[in-house]
Amino acid sequence: MRQLHPAYRDDLSQDDLRELYAYPADRPLVRANMVSSLDGAATVDGRSAGLSSTADKIVFDVLRGLCDVVLVGAGTARAEGYRAPRPKPAYAVQRAGLGQRPAPVLALVSGRLDLDPASDLFTGAERTLVLTAAGSGAGARSRLAEVADVVVAGEERVDVSAAIDVLVERGLPRVLCEGGPHLLADVTRADRLDELCLTTAPYVAGGPGPRIAEGLEPPQGSEPASLDLVHLLEQESILLARYVRRELPVRPARP
Asked: How far is CA 224 from CA 36, 38, 183, 199, in A?
Protein backbone atom coordinates (compact mmCIF):
# COMPACT_ATOMS: atom_id res chain seq x y z
CA MET A 1 0.00 0.00 0.00
CA ARG A 2 1.25 3.48 -0.85
CA GLN A 3 0.32 7.03 0.11
CA LEU A 4 -0.45 9.44 -2.72
CA HIS A 5 -1.43 12.52 -0.69
CA PRO A 6 -0.29 14.74 0.99
CA ALA A 7 3.12 13.26 0.11
CA TYR A 8 4.16 10.13 -1.72
CA ARG A 9 5.20 7.22 0.51
CA ASP A 10 5.63 3.65 -0.61
CA ASP A 11 5.31 0.36 1.29
CA LEU A 12 3.34 1.66 4.27
CA SER A 13 3.77 -0.48 7.37
CA GLN A 14 1.18 -1.32 10.01
CA ASP A 15 2.79 1.29 12.28
CA ASP A 16 2.46 3.87 9.50
CA LEU A 17 -1.24 3.09 9.13
CA ARG A 18 -1.84 3.34 12.87
CA GLU A 19 -0.21 6.76 12.85
CA LEU A 20 -2.20 7.92 9.83
CA TYR A 21 -5.52 6.90 11.41
CA ALA A 22 -4.80 7.77 15.05
CA TYR A 23 -7.65 9.36 17.00
CA PRO A 24 -7.10 12.71 18.76
CA ALA A 25 -6.23 12.37 22.42
CA ASP A 26 -8.11 15.45 23.64
CA ARG A 27 -11.66 15.11 22.33
CA PRO A 28 -14.34 12.60 21.30
CA LEU A 29 -14.50 11.87 17.59
CA VAL A 30 -17.05 10.10 15.41
CA ARG A 31 -15.42 8.45 12.42
CA ALA A 32 -17.34 6.60 9.72
CA ASN A 33 -15.82 3.88 7.57
CA MET A 34 -17.63 3.11 4.32
CA VAL A 35 -16.99 1.59 0.91
CA SER A 36 -18.41 2.64 -2.44
CA SER A 37 -18.18 1.60 -6.08
CA LEU A 38 -17.10 4.08 -8.75
CA ASP A 39 -20.76 4.76 -9.57
CA GLY A 40 -21.74 5.37 -5.95
CA ALA A 41 -23.19 2.03 -4.82
CA ALA A 42 -22.60 1.18 -1.17
CA THR A 43 -23.63 -2.47 -1.52
CA VAL A 44 -23.76 -5.30 -4.04
CA ASP A 45 -26.63 -7.75 -3.58
CA GLY A 46 -27.45 -6.03 -0.28
CA ARG A 47 -23.99 -6.34 1.26
CA SER A 48 -20.88 -4.16 1.32
CA ALA A 49 -18.71 -7.30 1.24
CA GLY A 50 -19.07 -7.41 -2.54
CA LEU A 51 -17.06 -4.17 -2.72
CA SER A 52 -14.38 -5.11 -0.22
CA SER A 53 -10.77 -6.02 -0.97
CA THR A 54 -7.50 -6.85 0.74
CA ALA A 55 -6.64 -3.16 1.06
CA ASP A 56 -10.07 -2.33 2.47
CA LYS A 57 -9.80 -5.14 5.00
CA ILE A 58 -6.35 -3.97 6.14
CA VAL A 59 -7.66 -0.47 6.89
CA PHE A 60 -10.86 -1.93 8.38
CA ASP A 61 -8.74 -3.90 10.88
CA VAL A 62 -6.63 -0.84 11.73
CA LEU A 63 -9.70 1.29 12.39
CA ARG A 64 -11.18 -1.46 14.57
CA GLY A 65 -7.91 -1.75 16.45
CA LEU A 66 -7.85 1.98 17.25
CA CYS A 67 -11.47 2.65 18.25
CA ASP A 68 -13.29 2.31 21.57
CA VAL A 69 -16.66 1.37 20.14
CA VAL A 70 -18.06 0.09 16.83
CA LEU A 71 -21.43 1.73 16.09
CA VAL A 72 -23.59 -0.15 13.61
CA GLY A 73 -27.24 -0.48 12.67
CA ALA A 74 -28.89 -3.77 13.61
CA GLY A 75 -29.97 -4.43 10.02
CA THR A 76 -26.42 -4.06 8.75
CA ALA A 77 -25.11 -6.27 11.55
CA ARG A 78 -27.52 -9.03 10.49
CA ALA A 79 -26.92 -8.66 6.75
CA GLU A 80 -23.14 -8.57 7.04
CA GLY A 81 -22.89 -11.39 9.59
CA TYR A 82 -21.39 -9.31 12.38
CA ARG A 83 -19.84 -10.74 15.52
CA ALA A 84 -18.92 -8.83 18.66
CA PRO A 85 -15.26 -7.72 18.43
CA ARG A 86 -12.58 -9.74 20.18
CA PRO A 87 -9.13 -8.66 21.41
CA LYS A 88 -6.33 -8.65 18.86
CA PRO A 89 -2.86 -9.31 20.26
CA ALA A 90 -1.27 -6.88 17.78
CA TYR A 91 -3.09 -3.98 19.47
CA ALA A 92 -2.88 -5.12 23.10
CA VAL A 93 0.08 -2.96 24.16
CA GLN A 94 -1.16 0.15 22.35
CA ARG A 95 -4.67 -0.15 23.74
CA ALA A 96 -3.43 -0.73 27.28
CA GLY A 97 -1.17 2.31 27.02
CA LEU A 98 -4.11 4.49 26.01
CA GLY A 99 -6.34 3.10 28.77
CA GLN A 100 -8.63 1.36 26.27
CA ARG A 101 -10.45 -1.90 26.80
CA PRO A 102 -8.83 -4.98 25.24
CA ALA A 103 -11.43 -4.98 22.45
CA PRO A 104 -13.88 -2.39 21.13
CA VAL A 105 -17.44 -2.47 22.42
CA LEU A 106 -20.13 -3.27 19.85
CA ALA A 107 -22.99 -0.74 19.93
CA LEU A 108 -26.10 -1.77 17.96
CA VAL A 109 -28.68 0.81 16.95
CA SER A 110 -32.13 -0.79 16.78
CA GLY A 111 -35.56 0.78 16.93
CA ARG A 112 -37.48 -2.53 16.86
CA LEU A 113 -35.04 -4.75 18.81
CA ASP A 114 -35.42 -7.54 16.26
CA LEU A 115 -32.26 -9.20 17.57
CA ASP A 116 -31.48 -12.78 18.59
CA PRO A 117 -30.00 -12.87 22.12
CA ALA A 118 -28.23 -16.15 21.23
CA SER A 119 -26.36 -14.67 18.25
CA ASP A 120 -22.64 -13.91 18.06
CA LEU A 121 -23.49 -10.23 18.46
CA PHE A 122 -23.59 -10.84 22.20
CA THR A 123 -20.62 -13.16 22.80
CA GLY A 124 -17.69 -10.75 22.63
CA ALA A 125 -15.00 -9.85 25.13
CA GLU A 126 -16.97 -6.73 26.09
CA ARG A 127 -20.67 -6.56 26.84
CA THR A 128 -22.59 -5.35 23.79
CA LEU A 129 -24.57 -2.10 23.96
CA VAL A 130 -28.02 -1.86 22.36
CA LEU A 131 -29.19 1.69 21.65
CA THR A 132 -32.94 1.88 21.15
CA ALA A 133 -36.00 4.10 21.54
CA ALA A 134 -38.73 4.06 24.18
CA GLY A 135 -41.19 2.83 21.55
CA SER A 136 -39.34 -0.48 21.23
CA GLY A 137 -41.33 -1.91 24.15
CA ALA A 138 -40.35 -2.87 27.68
CA GLY A 139 -40.66 -6.62 27.01
CA ALA A 140 -38.16 -6.58 24.15
CA ARG A 141 -35.75 -4.45 26.17
CA SER A 142 -36.00 -6.81 29.13
CA ARG A 143 -35.30 -9.84 26.92
CA LEU A 144 -32.11 -8.32 25.50
CA ALA A 145 -30.98 -6.90 28.85
CA GLU A 146 -29.96 -10.43 29.82
CA VAL A 147 -27.14 -10.38 27.27
CA ALA A 148 -26.50 -6.67 26.63
CA ASP A 149 -26.66 -3.21 28.15
CA VAL A 150 -29.83 -1.70 26.71
CA VAL A 151 -29.98 2.10 26.58
CA VAL A 152 -33.05 4.16 25.62
CA ALA A 153 -32.15 7.23 23.55
CA GLY A 154 -35.20 8.82 21.99
CA GLU A 155 -38.95 8.23 22.03
CA GLU A 156 -40.32 6.83 18.75
CA ARG A 157 -36.97 6.80 16.93
CA VAL A 158 -33.44 6.38 18.18
CA ASP A 159 -31.92 9.80 18.86
CA VAL A 160 -28.49 9.18 17.32
CA SER A 161 -26.91 12.29 18.84
CA ALA A 162 -28.10 11.32 22.33
CA ALA A 163 -26.88 7.76 21.70
CA ILE A 164 -23.40 9.02 20.81
CA ASP A 165 -23.40 11.13 23.99
CA VAL A 166 -24.12 7.93 25.94
CA LEU A 167 -21.08 6.27 24.38
CA VAL A 168 -18.85 9.17 25.38
CA GLU A 169 -20.28 9.22 28.90
CA ARG A 170 -19.43 5.52 29.21
CA GLY A 171 -15.78 6.24 28.44
CA LEU A 172 -15.95 5.36 24.73
CA PRO A 173 -14.96 8.60 22.95
CA ARG A 174 -13.30 7.01 19.90
CA VAL A 175 -16.40 6.10 17.90
CA LEU A 176 -16.21 4.10 14.67
CA CYS A 177 -19.48 4.10 12.72
CA GLU A 178 -19.61 1.25 10.23
CA GLY A 179 -23.09 2.06 8.96
CA GLY A 180 -25.07 0.98 7.19
CA PRO A 181 -26.10 3.77 4.86
CA HIS A 182 -29.26 4.70 6.80
CA LEU A 183 -27.34 5.00 10.08
CA LEU A 184 -24.66 7.12 8.43
CA ALA A 185 -27.41 9.39 7.12
CA ASP A 186 -28.79 9.69 10.66
CA VAL A 187 -25.34 10.48 12.09
CA THR A 188 -24.77 13.13 9.41
CA ARG A 189 -28.26 14.58 9.86
CA ALA A 190 -27.60 14.88 13.60
CA ASP A 191 -24.41 16.87 12.85
CA ARG A 192 -22.23 14.25 14.56
CA LEU A 193 -20.03 13.10 11.67
CA ASP A 194 -16.48 14.31 12.25
CA GLU A 195 -14.56 12.08 9.87
CA LEU A 196 -15.20 9.86 6.87
CA CYS A 197 -12.89 7.07 5.77
CA LEU A 198 -14.03 6.08 2.29
CA THR A 199 -12.77 3.18 0.22
CA THR A 200 -13.53 3.52 -3.49
CA ALA A 201 -13.60 0.15 -5.21
CA PRO A 202 -12.65 0.22 -8.93
CA TYR A 203 -15.95 -1.27 -10.09
CA VAL A 204 -19.08 -0.01 -11.79
CA ALA A 205 -21.68 -1.89 -9.76
CA GLY A 206 -24.90 -0.72 -11.36
CA GLY A 207 -28.18 -1.88 -9.86
CA PRO A 208 -30.30 -0.26 -7.15
CA GLY A 209 -27.67 -0.29 -4.39
CA PRO A 210 -27.92 2.58 -1.88
CA ARG A 211 -25.49 5.46 -1.53
CA ILE A 212 -23.26 5.52 1.57
CA ALA A 213 -25.66 7.94 3.29
CA GLU A 214 -29.02 6.71 2.07
CA GLY A 215 -32.04 8.95 2.59
CA LEU A 216 -30.04 12.04 3.56
CA GLU A 217 -31.87 15.10 2.27
CA PRO A 218 -29.78 18.01 0.95
CA PRO A 219 -29.67 20.96 3.41
CA GLN A 220 -32.20 23.70 2.78
CA GLY A 221 -30.81 27.20 2.45
CA SER A 222 -27.25 26.29 3.49
CA GLU A 223 -24.13 24.67 2.13
CA PRO A 224 -23.48 21.01 2.92
CA ALA A 225 -20.86 20.28 5.56
CA SER A 226 -17.38 20.43 4.08
CA LEU A 227 -14.69 17.84 4.70
CA ASP A 228 -11.03 18.14 3.81
CA LEU A 229 -8.96 15.34 2.33
CA VAL A 230 -6.28 14.49 4.90
CA HIS A 231 -4.68 11.57 3.12
CA LEU A 232 -5.20 9.30 0.13
CA LEU A 233 -3.83 5.75 -0.07
CA GLU A 234 -3.82 3.34 -3.00
CA GLN A 235 -3.37 -0.36 -3.58
CA GLU A 236 -4.22 -2.23 -6.79
CA SER A 237 -6.37 0.70 -8.06
CA ILE A 238 -8.36 0.79 -4.80
CA LEU A 239 -8.42 4.27 -3.24
CA LEU A 240 -8.63 4.77 0.52
CA ALA A 241 -9.37 8.36 1.50
CA ARG A 242 -9.65 9.98 4.90
CA TYR A 243 -11.72 13.16 5.10
CA VAL A 244 -11.99 15.34 8.20
CA ARG A 245 -14.67 17.91 8.86
CA ARG A 246 -13.29 21.35 8.08
CA GLU A 247 -14.41 22.89 11.36
CA LEU A 248 -14.78 20.30 14.09
CA PRO A 249 -17.36 21.28 16.73
CA VAL A 250 -15.96 21.73 20.21
CA ARG A 251 -17.10 18.66 22.15
CA PRO A 252 -14.89 18.18 25.20
CA ALA A 253 -14.65 14.71 26.67
CA ARG A 254 -17.22 14.16 29.38
CA PRO A 255 -16.07 13.02 32.83
From this structure: 20, 22, 18, 21
